[in-house]
Amino acid sequence: MTDNSITVIGSGATALAAAAYLTIKGKQVILCDREQGQRFRDIEDGGGITLEGVMETGSPVLPFRMTDDFQDAVGNARRILVCVSADRHREIADLCSPYAREGQTYVISPGNLGAVIFVDRFYKKGKKGVTAAELVGNICPCRITGRARVLMAMPVGEKRIAAFPACRTQMAIQAFEDVFRFHAARNIFEGMLNSPNLVIHVAGTLLNTTAIEKMGQDFALYTNGLTPSLLRCADAVEKERNQVLRELDYSAYASTVSKMHQMMDYGHYDELNYFRSLKGPASLEERYISEDASCSMALLVSLAEEYGIEVPVCKALITIANTVNGFNYYEHGRTLKNMGMSGMSRENLNQYLETLTMAGG
After folding, report:
1. How far apart (Å, rounded) are the C-alpha atoms in residues 287 and 291?
2. pLDDT tens, 90-107?
3. Name one Pfam family in it (predicted).
4. Would you say the CATH fold of 195-346 matches that of 5-185?
């Protein structure tokens, strides 16, 4: 493959939006996923992917190639953008690792600590020259609205990124600098803790349980679910998150709660209207809990447990999430213990995230 090519893995809204966006940018996009014949046929039958919202294309945009063959899509690729939900990270890492090679850069969107899984799989295959990085949040908020149609709710803008280990972050930034404006987070933990979804998704879903179960597919969190009481809860989550950031010497990025107050000011900030219109969650089992409770919230609570930081609201939210869905998101989540990083001092943890080594080891 040429340096002008980028492989996009996935077939959901983010993958389709990214494939169309990169094609518009003049890149040869190879779109790859398992057993997505119908989704890919929809794209072919429609002549491509049609973008709506802030980046309306009018006419369809057709990727260079679509395939379910990971060897074909990944084997000769230099840049791979992984756009799948967290519950598919292990599956995709297992499919990519046999064909990973030195000099490749994988960027995961949204990150959700997926870089840890990819690096683990690459190292087990002896592939230590591969860069795995992840974004803070997603390339852009988006939804599939029809066959091969995707609504982009906000523009593709500047994004924070961190590699695992963080000493490779600049490599990831440089690999994609012709198409994305990436800026370095200190490491994947600083990035994950700054995800806006940590602050709003779990709290917003649990405090709207009745509305979600009554409205189903018609529920839109940013239209139907934002209230002053919910934002007080989100503010408490953000304050606990910020305390964990301070204890670990991490930076806090922009306030999610401030953005939610703008979102709730429905007579103003018209540039937020597409985002306000996004549907979801339609049930309590969707990624607003299943992904964010098991990734960002589980990480936050495990860091608090490890270093003696009080986070009562976050603990309560993850406990309620466990209860309503009958699944222990903390026990099975991306905690320090489950990622093999417990028992370290703060200094050793941050050095490990930077270099995969610890002081004296």
Report:
1. 5
2. 999 999 999 999 999 999
3. Octopine_DH
4. no
Residue 35: the pLDDT is 77
With a CB cutoff of 8 Å and minimum separation 6, the contacts of 324 are 206, 209, 284
pLDDT in tens, 159-194: 999 999 999 999 999 999 999 999 999 999 999 999
pTM score of the predicted model: 0.97
Helical H runs in 68-195?
70-74, 89-96, 114-124, 169-175, 188-193
pLDDT digits (tens, 9 = 90+) for 214-249: 999 999 999 999 999 999 999 999 999 999 999 999
pLDDT at 3: 84
Q: Considering only CA atoms, which of 76, 82, 77, 73 is closest in space to residue 121? A: 82
Q: Report yes or no: 164 and 133 within 8 Å, Cβ to Cβ.
A: yes
Secondary-structure class of domain 195-346 per CATH: mainly alpha
Task: Kindly give the interhelix angle for 298-307 and 228-247, rounded to the nearest 10 degrees.
Answer: 50
Per residue in 57-91, pLDDT tens? 889 999 999 999 999 999 999 999 999 999 999 99
With contact defined as beta carbons under 8 Å apart, do 65 and 76 qualify? no
Q: Delimit the domains of the chain by residue range.
A: 5-185, 195-346
Q: Are the CB atoms for 71 and 77 separated by under 8 Å?
A: no
Of 64, 25, 27, residue with least CA distance to 44: 64
Six-digit token pair at 347? 């200094």
Q: Which residue has the tokens 């997505």?
A: 36
pLDDT on residue 1: 59
| Chain position carrying tokens 């004296």 | 360
Select from 199, 171, 66 the least CA-distant residue to 115.
171
**CB-based contacts of 348: which residues, under 8 Å, 6+ apart?**
358, 359
